Amino acid sequence: MSGGHFNYFHYKLGTFAEKLKDIMEDEEYCLSPEIITEVKNAINKSNELAVYARRIDWLISGDDGEETFLDRLKEDLENAKRLETSRA
């Protein structure tokens, strides 16, 4: 399994984003549209940070080299952005 230098912290960021999504959709909280917008921003930023954390983890762990890090980071960020757009 790749990475591990940071104890797979990027998975925790993904879990955090999922919990934010659950809170945002829970009618118990009755969040205003403005707050929902900011929670969505937090979800997107958490997902983006998870991409950075994973890629840096793989770089530091030796699974990726400097020659591939930037290309893979760019590709993963683009994929995350596409996923974000499709969920909006």
Mean pLDDT: 87
Content of β-strand: under 5%
Tell me roughly what share of residues is in helical segments. Answer: over 70%
Q: With helices defined by DSSP (H or I, 4 residues minimum), what is the helix count?
A: 3
Counting DSSP E segments of at least 2 residues, the number of strands comes to 0
Q: Per the principal axes of the C-alpha atoms, what is the gross shape?
A: elongated
N-end to C-end Cα span:
32 Å
Radius of gyration: 15 Å
Q: What structural class do helix, strand and pairing data support?
A: mainly alpha
Q: Which sheet architecture does the biggest sheet show?
A: none
Q: What is the succession of H and E elements? A: HHH
Uncertain regions spanning at least 5 consecutive residues: none
| Count of domains | 1
